[in-house]
Amino acid sequence: MFVKVSRSKRNNKVHETLQIAESYRDSNGKVRHRILLHLGPTDKFIKKDVDTLINGLLRAKGLTLQDLDSNIDNVKAFGQIWALVHLWKELKMSQIIARQKEKSGIKFDLEAHLKSLIFNRLDDPSSKLKLLTWLETVYIPGINKDDIRYEYLLRAMDFLIAHKEKIETQLANRLLDLFNQDLKVCFYDLTSSYFEAENSLVEGDIRQFGYSRDHRGDREQIVIGVVMTGDGIPIAHYVFPGNKADRSTLQEMLNDIRRRFKVKDIQLVADKGLLSNDNLWHLIQQGYEFILGESVRQSKDAKSVIKEANAHKEATGETIYERLTEREIKSKDGKKEKIKLRYVASYNAATALKRYKNRINRINEFLELSEEIKKKEINTEDKYHQIKSVLSRKRLSRFFNVELTEDTIEIHKQDEVLSEEEKSDGWFIVISNAHDLSKSELIARYKDLKYVEHGFYELKHSLNLRPNFHWTEKRIRAHVMVCFLAFQMAVLFEKRLSGIKLSWQRAMESLRRVVVVEWENEGRRRKGLSRVHGEQLEIFQEIGSSKPTLLSL
């Protein structure tokens, strides 16, 4: 339905008439217009009449265009919520949730509670109890804050994790469809997340002590794996016990991705922490292409390649070097096989200088602290243990040999080891069995792991994966899933904004200034909407959303 201006010419004069019309399709499928109401000549309408007419139509919905006054008693952020509602619809979240809800027996408004959980994570991440307070500060169409209950939020989380695979798979397929992508390149990486609350560990607890990427080895943690496409679209996540070794998760993830997404040929890109002999065997036997990071310290082949790469760089100035190497791998049951792998080394001068300076600073700090410890009035054995502790803390154990005699402590620098370390500064190595990429393309694809690393930053900081105060495995997994679903929405948001080079966080900040105001008038509750203009209009246009109007409320 729309307002139409009809023009006709009589006596050499143009006459304009206002009409209310609607569009429809005739029996042949052609779009036609029909007039529903004649409002009369445009020159008979004055501004006051237009406002009165529109106000009369809006009044039935409790809305008004009248000027606001001091009766305003509530202001709620709305613009960013309107954008999230659009993305929610674009992802078909309502249908995805409804399909799983059918047989659940849930009677409360499940979608409203899930929408509240995910929108809160994107707008102002908080605990479930604080979420109820947050609802008082935002306007979400169709959701009455008084209907959102704490116990239902927890039940909604339980629903999510009970249907994780189907919800996650359907949402991932929707994202792939939106960007017309196939799952051919699979980026996989892991991170850890520790717990703020201290609760006693029980047998089989998913919270465990392990290698902490947050440098909080004093806290229990979980390990989280994320899978993304080559363009940085997150499609799946995994939660493992906090003491799970990274490399032990790879085969489980690959088998799951193949089964769920019905794909056979996947090119895996992963960091060196995923590389092991057993994983190489699995990748080769299952026919995967791969690009994996390789440790420049622990592999003989890698050390040899670095030596050749340095010589090649000095002779030619080239910073990428490749060697085809035959490597023997074996299965758990002792089967052996020789395979040819591409070893590609890449050099960055800025990284080399940064690593060198960092190591020199750590060495100098260690030597100074060692001298201070030697001067302490404690026994020699205690001094020895303190020096060894500093050495370990500074990650310098392989560069120094500390010897304890009856009365003295001798510190010997391992010059040969230091020299080898300096030669590897600035270099990293990947191994691959992919032959359709040049060495430069192969390095570039490996560097695209930055999408996953950026994703971990978003999860931990922008979406506040921490603090995590849950302590049962089901709720821990559900909390991570809420964060992951919010992350998927954030990625869609930011990709839609790529044309104006605006981050989704910056867009949310701008849109929060579009507010809904509420007040009492003539015994009825009224609503008004602030003006939408400038950058806000541009954001709505970029994501494909209409701008909010009073009728949106």
Automatic annotation (TrEMBL):
<dbReference type="Pfam" id="PF01609">
    <property type="entry name" value="DDE_Tnp_1"/>
</dbReference>
<dbReference type="InterPro" id="IPR047654">
    <property type="entry name" value="IS1634_transpos"/>
</dbReference>
<protein>
    <submittedName>
        <fullName>Transposase IS4 family protein</fullName>
    </submittedName>
</protein>
<feature type="domain" description="Transposase IS4-like">
    <location>
        <begin position="218"/>
        <end position="486"/>
    </location>
</feature>
<dbReference type="GO" id="GO:0004803">
    <property type="term" value="F:transposase activity"/>
</dbReference>
<dbReference type="InterPro" id="IPR002559">
    <property type="entry name" value="Transposase_11"/>
</dbReference>
<dbReference type="GO" id="GO:0006313">
    <property type="term" value="P:DNA transposition"/>
</dbReference>
<dbReference type="GO" id="GO:0003677">
    <property type="term" value="F:DNA binding"/>
</dbReference>
